[in-house]
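For consistency, the fold was encoded as tokens, as this record shows:
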Amino acid sequence: MRIGIVGAGVAGLCTAKVLRAAGHDVVVWERAPDVGGVWSATRRYPGLSTQSPRDTYAFSDFPMPRDYPEWPSGEQVQAYLAAYVHDARLEPVLRLRTEVVRARHADGWTLTVRDLATGAESEQRVDHLVVANGVFCEPAVPELPGADEFAAVGGQVLAGSDFHGVEDARDRHVVVLGYGKTACDIAAAVSETAAATTIVARQLVWKVPRKVGGVLNFKHLLLTRLGEALFRYRTLRGFEKVLHGPLNRVRSGMLDSLGPVSTRQFGLAELDLVPRGRFQDIVRGAIGLSTDGFYDRVRAGALVVRRDRSVTRLLEKDGTPHVELDDGGVVRADLLICATGYRQGVPFLDEEVAARLTDERGNYLLYRQIMPVGDDDLVDDLTFAGYNSSFFSPLNAEMSAVWTAERLAGRLQLPDRATMRAHVDAQLAFMDSATDGHHCHGTKIIPFSLHNVDEVLDDVGLNLSRGVRFRQWLSPVDPRAYRGVAAAARARG
């Protein structure tokens, strides 16, 4: 087939590699001037680094360089992905600085693509379309009243992904909306140059220490099969039944013990930054890694956190830009940076087509986070890649690419569409409950990364041996254990 892939991030690149190796004619369109998706220089914010350690955030057959730090920077990840492209000889299939404007479905796909350097548009035909535009593709910037008044006195509003340098904050009063990893990364970085830095946090969430107690790398706790099994999955298997049955109190205590450890390690009580609720409920708010130096900057007074507050409007006061909070207080804000999440959108699809991919709440109806479960021929010509954001995003995307290759080769035995739809509905209902709806419309699978890998590989009959998976219960999962999967799939052809 001729296969078109939209997006040259982690998922788009590994899907291109796997499908090309399977014999397909592949082309990848990317509107940025470089590969990387969220790691592109066009989207990197100051302080950006991986959430997962170097050895776990990698493709199975292409480990990160050994001289990279434990948590590589955004720039280093982008360089790693560029090296992956070179190693896989993907340069000929890449179309950088090229935007897919529209994709029309009829006997395959007709795409209108625009060369961003010249503005010239052309039409391209593909048999199959892979959507790999990223689940974090459209920043969700709130619309606040008073924007004109705010801008008239020099106030500036930016999405976190549009803020690229701490020098842009020098000697300015900066307000950051949010309390996720992006917000804390940016706030800690800009507090080094800004005249004042304030975080406005509607809700505090627990942060996972990079090293628990300053000693134990968190990957030994949460990036193992045991660590994942501490959170209840929709279907329990093997020892998970024991953990959530007879040992449920022990399991719960193991998770909640991390709350007091974090409180002591970061001095959260003295800073009045202890989140509400139990640590094991972290999955309901979003699991985020702590930002190096963040709490130290708060303690030093270089960074102020206004907890349990939100911004209600923008305004001018005494000739300078300010924001008003829901308690009536005002904070000067020459620069307002919104690290308030993302919307999952596929803007190049016609509205009628896009509507058939989601339910009434906007959740993507994707079997295994890959395949649409509609009742028409759309499902045969469309695949999603990377809509399973996780701690192991490269590995999850790569194994999903193998699943896609097997499906296109006709070697995948799938349930009927009614059964798949029932499965998707049940999965979304479970994730609603497990994460309090914080699953990004069905595109985020944290903390159930390995459950997703197992399901995908069980479908294609290529899961790792029980012995290898048993060793992953106590040791951090090494993606290199999966490096033979794609080759084994091709060998069956």
